[in-house]
Amino acid sequence: MSTATLQTKGLTVRFGGLLAVNDVDLDCRPGELTGLIGPNGAGKTTLIDAVTGFLPKNASGSVNFDGEEALGTAPSRLAHRGLCRTWQTLELFDDIDVRSNLEVASSRLTPMKALRDYFRGSDVDERIATTLELLNLSHVADRSPSELSQGQRKLVGVGRALVADAKLLLLDEPAAGLDRQETVWLGLQLRRIVEAGTPILMVDHDMGLVLSVSDRIHVLQFGKLIASGTPEEIRNNEQVIAAYLGASGGDE
Questions:
Q1: 115 has a pLDDT exceeding 50
Q2: What is the mean pLDDT of residues 157-161?
Q3: What's the gap between Cα 165 and its chain centre?
Q4: In angstroms, rounded to a whole number, what is the distance separating the alpha carbons of residues 82 and 105?
Q5: pTM of this prediction?
């Protein structure tokens, strides 16, 4: 049995006649930050959408998460199992403070949970405090997200996914809109998350960030996996170099 937290086999995504993700095998391992890169239109976000259950009618193949098949499972159920993601568009609740943003994300009220919390007390406050400390956000916990820097706002979004008992974080363009200093700072916080025990699969266009913080990197081009390896191996891969040098505009 695979020791990977997440493993895809033959993952394929079709939109009518368009083959967006083509027979992709990749994995994310415990204790690692895995990068997923590729030129615009390579299928990176589409792959994340498929893995997290948002394309049930378009995706085929296999997605094994935490030892169980995940393809065809609803996004909400996958999130409850610990497959948590962020989105390119950052949508925070600016009318409540940072701590409350995390509290909303951590709420999974069920009759059994309500009964347990009544008799034993809730661990939500402790999880939130631990997450805020891990992300260096404790000093802004009582402030509105609108008062934070863009880098801090990005981390609040990551924190909302992390506090929901995440077993794997899938981050879609976490560095988008950040300047170089904020990006470097973000990278340090992402490494802290991995070192604390939560693996990450990260999609980002910032090659400097991905190469500097990833343990391994997968590269997509036109929906196909063209390379996998360490940052050094990817940096020197001629096929990867050609894919980026030949890349043109266009969004996914």
A1: no
A2: 93
A3: 14
A4: 13
A5: 0.88
Give the whole-angstrom CA distance, residue 106 versus residue 104: 6
Tokens of 243: 């894919």
Count of alpha carbons within 13 Å of 3, Cβ hemisphere only?
Answer: 4
Distance CA 221, CA 134 (A): 35
Q: How far is Cα 46 from Cα 172, in angstroms, rounded to an integer?
A: 10
CA 79 to centroid of chain Cα atoms: 12
90 burial level (CB within 10 Å; 0-12, 13-18, 19+): middle
The residues with which 221 forms a beta bridge, in sequence order, are: 224
Distance CA 180, CA 62 (A): 37
Rounded-to-integer distance, Cα 169 and Cα 102, Å:
15
User: What's the pLDDT at 109?
Assistant: 44
pLDDT in tens, 2-54: 589 999 999 999 999 999 999 999 999 999 999 999 999 999 999 999 999 99
Residue 118: its pLDDT value, please? 44
Contacts of 40 (CB under 8 A, 6+ apart): 205, 247, 248, 249, 250, 251, 252
HSE, CB side, 13 Å, CA atoms: give it for residue 212: 14
Question: 144: how many CB neighbours lie within 10 A of its CB?
Answer: 16
DSSP 213: H
Q: What is the pLDDT of residue 116?
A: 47
CB 52 within 8 A of CB 136: no
Calculate the CA 46 to chain-centre distance.
13
